[in-house]
Amino acid sequence: MYAAQAGSAITFQEPVRSVIFEKEMAGLFEQAYSIEYFGGSQLVIDDDALLRWARQNNISPARTQLEALQRGIVPLRYVKNLRALKPVEQKLICSSKALICGCGGLGGIVIHLLARAGVGYLRLVDGDTFTLTNLNRQLLGESSNLSESKALAAAERVRAVNPLVEVEACNLMVQQDNVEPLMQGMDVVLDALDNLSGRFLLADSARKLGIPFIHAAVAGWWGQVSTFLPYSTHNLEAIYGELRSRDPAEEATGVLGPTAAIIGSLEALEAIRLLAGRTPAYTDKLLYFDGESGRMEILPL
After folding, report:
1. Region 216-223: what's the mean pLDDT?
2. Burial environment of residue 297 by CB neighbours within 10 A (0 to 12, 13 to 18, 19 or more)
3. pLDDT tens digit string along 24-50?
4. What is the pTM assigned to this prediction?
5. Contact 158, 167 (CB under 8 A)
6. Which CATH superfamily is domain 96-300 in?
7. Which of 50, 72, 71 shows the shortest CA–CA distance to 61?
8. Looking at residues 45-70, what average pLDDT do you find?
9. How far apart, in Å, are the Cα atoms of 111 and each of 39, 45, 301?
10. Which residues make up the CATH 3.40.50.720 domain(s) of the chain?
């Protein structure tokens, strides 16, 4: 879906031209209506109408929202994205695919925000289950789903939040034998893991397959985000050096919920920039957040 060359921003190809007959599309136009928006008019459509049309024509909801967008009909749920995003950027986001590894503190935030933004296909990976100690920061965890799969709970939440996107739950840990198959067909890989070995495995595999990789990590009051494109000069070693396991001192800092929420939001925003065809903000840089002092810095790698 993207093409990149050294020293250039990522560019995206337009979604495949519609193969739906215009006669069938007339039914979609009949369900759309015009609203006043920022001094102009915008053709929009409700979720129920889109989903009903998808069922009638045996087309996935994700494909249906693309058909609508290609004809200038914006799903009403995305109207507040406009102005910040151009219609063509919303269309690119809705035609994109993201792999999110980790459905805990960081991943829960990222998953929510990318689903709400309309990312067309979300592959969610986590082999862990919820425990009581997760509930201070993990948005997807609740008293009612303790001991349940994080990936399955995440997929269920996505379907409730946005039925127009496709979601795949992978109840497994990222390992050497599955990491590349998990990345196949993806437009971006998001790191929401809590271990360095898994992070390096994701970073190395994403580079090998030519897929943008967004790294994020949190500990206590502190967090960081960095982006590595297929042509990046640097890799995770620029941040961690020879370290391949968490420092016990870092482990002892715990994780505050607001820290995970802030860093997860920044990671999701970076993914939206990238999937919309814009230049990522943190390529070969490290955004460092100090929640204790309230300061944020962007450091060159």
Report:
1. 97
2. exposed
3. 777 788 899 999 988 889 999 999 999
4. 0.91
5. yes
6. NAD(P)-binding Rossmann-like Domain (3.40.50.720)
7. 50
8. 94
9. 33, 24, 27
10. 96-300
